[in-house]
Each structure stands twice: as structure tokens, then as C-alpha cells.
Amino acid sequence: MSLTTLSENRSHGGIQGVYDHTSDAVGTTMTFSVYVPPHEAGAKLPVLWYLSGLTCTHANVTEKGAYRRACAEHGIIFVAPDTSPRGDDVPDDEAYDFGKGAGFYVNALQEPWARNFRMRSYIEDELPALIAANFPADMARQGITGHSMGGHGALTIALRNQPRFKSVSAFAPIVSPLNCPWGEKALGGYIGPDKDKWREYDAVALIEDGARLPDLLVDQGTADNFLTEQLKTGLLALACKKAGIPATIRMQEGYDHSYYFIETFMEDHVKWHAGRLI
Amino acid sequence: MSLTTLSENRSHGGIQGVYDHTSDAVGTTMTFSVYVPPHEAGAKLPVLWYLSGLTCTHANVTEKGAYRRACAEHGIIFVAPDTSPRGDDVPDDEAYDFGKGAGFYVNALQEPWARNFRMRSYIEDELPALIAANFPADMARQGITGHSMGGHGALTIALRNQPRFKSVSAFAPIVSPLNCPWGEKALGGYIGPDKDKWREYDAVALIEDGARLPDLLVDQGTADNFLTEQLKTGLLALACKKAGIPATIRMQEGYDHSYYFIETFMEDHVKWHAGRLI
To answer: Which domains does chain B possess?
Structure first.
């Protein structure tokens, strides 16, 4: 498993890199970023995954996420994958919330999406192996977070893969694709009309069906335009309460859905993960 | 003096805004960003100016500069102007280092630049008045910093306007346009062949000619591709030494010219300014 270095820049004493590789899982070239903090030679560091939201690539959080200071302080590797397969040969849709940039972290079952739109396998299996082989990563200590669609990805991947992810958080996550227009469009298109098959891609349904997390941190802005119709944080709070999952769900007054919100609470999240990974 | 709000987002307890206005100084619409940290009603806060480098607008540092956390902590307003006049009616050049995006913080004397390329007057006079009129700014407490061409702008504006700027710093500044290709091209084009007229736009020459600063912080990466040919930090160090200006000039091992470098040391700079403004 080889990768190509696109750029490496020193930052906060470590190296912020951007790499690409040929992905078997999704059948295209995929770009991702990795921040490796300063560390002693030979050390193996915990890994924090960050899954991005609709329309994003690795670049949004890499440039705007303000995670490097905290990751350098705590000694955590930060990995930011892309949100979908890419390239001229990949099927797409005109909408911003379906097709490229909107992989929804599923393995698609419907055509023409089934060959390439396999972001679940990419994030759960292929990319972790690549990270383990090429970076000083201790894969026994992984945490996961994400924003919006990526918050959905983080929650569902963590719920399906316990105890692999020892720490879980999210920024303004889509908590139940079964119950919002973004989710209905994406899962209807990628997975098909059988909603029973959607449940493994729905954090609330996974909890209802018995999946558990050790605990959970969520920040959600009260001025987020998507809160009422798409994100529905309350459904997650209720599901966690019923299931006995200790969830710290913070409604942040006046914050919106942007990276100005994410950067404000990023250090809190890194610290949360550090407390569970170190 | 009125401005139009393009966006306002809550971040680190304050408001990151982007605004535009019609500039008399440069004769075009100009966009700038202002971060106002959380503060008590009626309070007047110190102002830190950040001047950007070649090809940049207000957006680069606003998105990538990682200054909000520190400005919120210290209670400092952060203002990021554009780097040149903009618009279809403004003369331009194909090069990245002349014309739009490359105003060099001068008042041009040569045609066709003389009407619009008046960034010196814009930054020194017009925009401060607009800030004073529209934000909770204490204009008796101003500091200035900048990157590359903007470091040149910060140094020269501070040197020409003492004691207005009580604190001065720079990231990888162009220290002597008289002695580098970027400067020769820009000042030759905007000011003309008489190099005596360049000296008010050259930090080293201003110091040689008697201008002084109370003290100075500069960070410069050793892996910066522009260090040897364009930036020439050593000329500034020598001029400060000869003039008795206390200059903290830090060569940062392995850092390049990018915002990954800037973000690493931004909090140090905000703290430096806070120590002199608060």
C-alpha cells in the first residue's frame, strides 16, 4: 500500500501532510491529509479521525479546523479523508447533497453508485491500513469525530465498530438520516427503497437496535440553519438517554454550521479524545 | 462612512465579520474582515492590524490565520484588509507580484496605477476612520503585523507613523524592497525610477534615515523558499542593531512561507501585541 506525498509543511512542531493513493475500495485516486505532531523517534501515537461534511474535501478542516495546536499539545495524529470518490469516471449528480462530495459514508447498493460509492469500506478498512503502514500510528488507540454528514459518519462508524473507537464526538451531526431530507435523498439513492437497510447508517436506529458507545461529546450551534429540519440533535439525545449512553450534548448559543463554529470547539474535542486515548 | 455587512459568524465568543465599503482612497469597493472578541457593553478594545501578502485578500488570514482564540483571550480586535484595489475598472498585470493582489502598501506615482493603487492612504487613513466609526475600537491602542509583502507594509507603516502603532511584528517580511526582485519590480512600477522615492517604502532605509520603533518581533522560517533572494531578514536585523531598536528576530527551524507557519506563531504575536496594548 503506497501513497504519494502532495505536500508537507511544518506546523506547530509537527508535519501537516497531504497525500493521495489509488483506492481499491472506491476505485479512484483518493486524497487525504494527516497531521503528525512532534514526537520522540519510535513512538506510536493515537489517531483521531475527522470526517467532513457535504461539499467538503480533506482541505476544509485542514485549512480551517484549527486542530494542530491541540494535537501537538496532546500528541495525537489527525487524519482527514475526502467525502466521496473523485474523478471524471465517477458518477455524479448536479445536487450538492448527492454524488461527489456527498458519499454519506455508506457502501452503495444501487446503480450507478455501487462500484465507487463505498466510503464505509474506505474509512473502516482501507484507509486505516494505509495509515498504519505509513505513519507512526498506534491503531489500538483510535478516536473519531466529524461535522454534519461527517458527524453522521463518525457516529455510525463508531457505533458499528466497537470497541475499536475508544472516543467519539461530533460537531453538528446529522443524527438520523431516516428522519431528514438529506438522509432520505442520500440513502434512498445509494441504498434503495428498503428502509430496513438504512438502519446501519442511522446513529439513532443503531442505538435503538442495540449498538453502544462508551460515551459521547456533541456540540451543536443554536443558530445553525440546518438544526430543525436536518440535524435534529434531540433525537440523538433521546436515544442516548434511553440506551444509557453517557452523552454530553452541548447546545452552543448563537453558533452556526460553519467552520467558525467548528474551530471554536475543536480544542475541546481534541482534549476530550486525548482524555480517552492517552 | 458606511459599510455593508457581507457575513457575520460567531466564533470563540465574538463575531467574525466580513464587510465592504466604497473607498475614496483607492476609488473602488473594498472588502475587509474584522473580528470583535467578546467584551463588556461599552468597552473600547485595542486593534491589531494584519496586512496580507502577495495574491492574498482578507480571506486567507481570516480562514487560516488561527488568531481568534488568542484575540478572544486578550480582548483584541483583529482587522484584515485586502492587498490592493479590486474591480474590472482597476488596471492590472498578468504577474502575481504586480497589480491586483500586489498593492505593496504604497501610493503609486506612475500611470496607470496612480489613481487606484493608493493602499498607503487606505491603510493609514481611510480604513482606520471607518473602523473607529463602526466598531468598539480604541484607536489610541493600535498594533500592526503582517506577512511577507504585508510584513513590509506593517514595518513601513509603523515606522512612518510613530507613536501611533504601539506594537509591531511581522511574519517573514520583505524587509528591503530596494534590495530584492519583488521590491524592484513593484516600486519601479508604482513609484518610478527615482530610488530616493522608494526609501519611505523600505523598512531598512527608513531605519537608516532615522525612523524608530519601540521594539519589534519577527518570525522567519529557515525553510522559506523566499528567504535568501526576497526577504533578507538579516538586513533588518543589522539595521535594528545599528539603530538600537530592540528586535526579537526568531529564525524558526524548518518552517516555510505558508499559513501553516503563520498559524504556528500567530498566538505568540497576539500575545506580544497584547503585552504592549493592554
So the answer is: 4-275 (3.40.50.1820)
